[in-house]
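re: ur question from yesterday

yeah so i grabbed the chain u mentioned. its 274 aa long if i counted rite. heres the sequnce exactly as i have it in my notes:
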Amino acid sequence: MPLNPNQTRQLLENLAHLPNKKLGQNFLVDGNIVRKSLELAELKPEQAVVEIGPGLGTLTRALLEKGHSVWAVERDRTLAAYLRRELVPAQPNLHLTEADCLDLPRAALPDSIAETGYQVVANLPYAVSTPWMDSLLAGLPPERMVLMLQKEAGDRYTASHATKNFGAISIFLQSAYTVTGRHHVSSTCFHPAPKVDSLLLRLDRRSDAVCFNGTTRECIRRIFTQRRKQLGSLCRKEDSPSVLLWFESLIEKGYPATARPEEIPSDEWIRLKL
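ran it thru and got these structure tokens back, copy pasting raw so excuse formatting
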């Protein structure tokens, strides 16, 4: 059973651990949300699962009880020690690594397993959700992700073009994944309660998924750091002639010469290859 609010507070007190705001530590204390996460994931028997920031192991226990192999990465030394002491000895299917998830976005899941298909099911630490996603998409992407994340981050992931939330991460994610589930989560489902609400998102990898190479990703990120400038002038500043040719092809399609980066939909950015 998931830890309830009182059990969570008591366990943190026993560990003499104060939730770290810098690491975005907000512990899930609502069993219904844990069950909803597993329901959305529709995990296959013995499916390999990556978990980011397992914390006190609330979601981890639920995954293990279903018979899944879990690769988890936890940066916090106290929490990692707790999990190694309380869960790892009795759970051979739990592979725990103490590290920063930005260094190990797949939690040390071996390439040989990742290539056969895996999922991510995680209550993402608020402080790292977007840079973690950026790192994950640069490697072998999972078949599906079920992510608890800050509503603001979720809005950036799923933003439509021509909106203020649309940016580089929107393009990277939408070029590879489709949102197939979205569930609002109140701040009261966590301890301590964050000042913002959260989203539980299910993201399924597209059959025609595109993962940009490093050079193209850096170019798109540079362009969006000056998102209020006209796209044409930004493209002319790039070293590669391919960028300007791509922009000229947009003009031929009927996009205005004064278009700004956020006005171009993800499917057009997919054609930019460096």
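noticed a couple things. The beta strands are 27-28, 48-52, 69-74, 94-98, 119-123, 144-150, 177-185, 190-191, 198-205. also The domain at 5-205 is CATH 3.40.50.150 (Rossmann fold).
anyway ttyl
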